[in-house]
Design goal:
With 126 residues, the chain is mostly helical. The chain contains 4 helices and no strands. The radius of gyration is 16 Å and the shape is elongated.
């Protein structure tokens, strides 16, 4: 079992989710059960799946949850683009958050690659 709080990618994803929650509080009220809810759930799913994967017993399970977190990051990225095109966020807000999203995705990809390589090395050694 790993402590998810020790992972930089979890911290970055957690900060992303907090920022999405704060920014989305300004979205139109009629979007509360639409885009507001959806982008909040997607962004929260990223650090949630990292944390859940850390609590699993094997690297294969951890990698599986990292892959789910990556999917949620991609979903958040699309919904964030939709927010820009609907005029819910300013271009500067969009750009800043998009950079964070891209960093989280890069960090997830790197961690996923490392976990999978470590697993392959363990299998090769046995």
């Amino acid at each position: 079992m790993k402590d998810f709080r020790q992972l930089r990618v979890w911290e970055k994803a957690h900060q992303l989710a907090l920022a999405i929650y704060k920014i989305s509080s300004w979205f139109p009220k009629e979007e509360l059960y639409g885009l507001t809810s959806q982008i909040r759930r997607a962004s929260m799913s990223v650090p949630t799946n990292i944390a859940e994967g850390c609590g699993r017993g094997t690297d294969a399970e951890f990698a599986h949850f990292l892959q789910i977190a990556m999917g949620s990051a991609c979903e958040t990225e699309y919904e964030w683009l939709l927010c820009l095109e609907l005029g819910f966020v300013l271009p500067d807000e969009y750009k800043n958050m998009q950079e964070v999203l891209e960093e989280v995705k890069r960090m997830l990809a790197t961690l996923l690659k490392t976990v999978r390589q470590d697993r392959r090395m363990l299998i090769a050694e046995s």
